[in-house]
Amino acid sequence: MNKKLLPSAIALGISLSLPATAATMFRDTINVERTPAPVSQTHWQDNKAEMDAFIDGLIAKMTLKEKIGQLDLQSGFRNVTGPFINDEYEAQIRSGQVGAIFNAYGADFGRALQKLAVEETRLGIPLIVGHDIIHGHKTIFPQSIGEAATWDLEAAKLSAQVAAKEAAADGIMWTFAPMADLVRDPRWGRVSESAGEDVFLSTAMAVARVEGFQGDDLAATDTVMATAKHFVGYGLAQAGRDYHTTDVSEHELWTTQMPPFKAMVDAGVATFMTAFNDLNGVPATGSQFLLTDVLRDQWGFEGFVVTDYTAINELVPHGYARDDKHAAEIAFNAGADMDMVGQLYTGYLAELVAEGKVSEEKIDQSVRTILEMKWRLGLFEDPYRYNDEARAAREILNADNLEAARDVARKSFVLLKNDNQTLPLKQDEIDSIALIGPLADSKFDMIGNWAAAGDRKDQPVTVLEGLKARFGRDVKINYAQGATYAYINDKATIEASQGIGVPRIEEGHRSLARDMKRAISAAKKSDVIVMVMGEEQRMSGEASSRVELTLPGNQQAVMEELKKLGKPMVLVVMSGRPNDLRWADENVDAILHAWYPGTMGGHAIADVLSGDYSPSGKLPMTFPRSVGQVPIFYNQKNTGRPFDANNPNQRQEHYKSRYDDSPNTPLYAFGHGLSYTEFHYGELTLSSETLTPDGELHVSVNVSNVGDYAGEEVIQLYTRQHVGSITRPVKELKGFQKVHFESGESKTISFTLTPEDLAFYRAGMRWGTEAGEFDLFIGTASDQVQKATFTLID
Ligand code: NOJ
Would you say residue 645 lies in a domain? Predict the structure, then answer.
């Protein structure tokens, strides 16, 4: 094994340069027995018999070593996404020991690697080239949690389509997305990569993304294979600490964690990725129950399963395998087809076959699933179909893609608060804006943490650039960075940053004070203060758990100083998680959550601040008041002692489920998000007071835009079952529609409910419905709804 700790130069993404003569150097030394060119693979189902015959023939020719080689996934150097890297992958490709590679984008780079596999191995089996294309390849869309905040499935699909189009010209045919882990703990940095806390929304987003990435033909040169990840339970890492254990009841697992994954199987997702976590005592990567019993036998998944990065090796520290060889045996027999980076299959599977611990038939099955995907990608027909510099030049960062990214970005912003209609900024009333904050002019941060191939130096449009482009000479922008988002750990620095002008010896202290002074002087000469604050991009992502949800650095201190000026204050938050925004909620006039908005983020933010676009995003995750409320989510259980904050006799509420030092309610509820315009909801109309086993219940509500702006509203439908054989949540999202309204326009919005929408895992894990009383809620947020009731009858 050639595992090495990463040298820092590699961490910066240095590319591998292949000698131009590599192919010729080796060609004569090996016995090239090329794979014959088969019939077209573009409509694989029509040609399934040919595919099967071709793959049968190929497997029959393969040695055990070559078969095991197909089960190996290596990482290139173009990005670094894990703790180890193997710098011998080129030689391993040549020797037929690599079936797929990732972190290796670029049409030319991919072609060079593909050539090694196609021209220099005995059988010439092409590589699959993958990459983490999470929210855009080079045109970066909003971070996944922001995309979820659009509540717009077409937008999510479009983002995936654009990403696929750019990637599939740039040497990539496989993405490790979507991540469908359901999350409830904002301390976990990867909530940024999720679609939030709700199973209905997460499932819908996951399916839209799979459809967007894969289209209806994997061999098309504008689609890529998707990966359903991480299977399963990774989003419930204990204490919000990445890679930590998940302990979840069977009921909860099947109710909230499994459904997005099942839906992706039904949507035809090509691959699955295992999860790092220990799930109820068995690490997911070694779980036969998950990878075989559920995924293959119960759900009928036909693609292949890749492990997460060195996740097989990690079965040893998990305490589930004695050593690496034992780990390989467990993971392979459990159903993990492909080993990401760890090289344990290439290291040990042959020995395990010789010892009778792994069967060659099972290896053949795994190889078959991988070769089938290679066929379906069209790689046997033309291994270079995804390496097209001309197409890449046409597709990557083209005007349509950038416009789509701008549109999806502005749809993702959530207006959390807007007192006195501070937003939009009124151009006829203001001459100047103070633009302050470490994220106001940071190209580096705009595209978020997981924008692997995205440019961070030139392409991203910052808020400063966006506002200048929007307002031109009409409004003066007085910019000052003002604050730092870097963690400040020493007390002296924190004090220095708060006391302006306090003489300190250390330069760091002085410069914080100097920055603050600049911010104050910019604010003094401006009509309104716009602060762009939040988290440095690296804080919201993998391996970025936090114990505090407050804005890091001295950002709060700077806001407090600016507040003293008594001017209108707008806070634009950039971060990939719910933050503790209590101070801002009490002190700032308007708050817009912008996540990490992507390449066109600055323009999109200017669109919203200027009123060219009225915000329409809704929170996909509850914002707590403080980290102490975590985990907090809208679809909680009622408890036996539900607390009633509205009871005038609060003494009666003492022995109730509540905190002594905080309300139970969140700062901003799931589904919350304001608009510049105002939507009025009429009364709910139900087609019947009962729902029969074969029946449908139609519910409608009249929604009117009674404000001055055109805008989009997300109309949300929730239900609550009063009594169940398993206690039911206080609300469950069952439907939503994002609808555009002109100013003054009214529309009747209708939903249809069937008993299947009300089915759940009943006592004894029996899926089905239970007759009884239900509440039905429709509204603009989970905590702002109108209620009706109906009865489900047997
Ligand atoms: C580890 C992450 O958990 C996974 O999501 C990602 O796809 C792999 N690294 C590859 O970069």
Answer: no
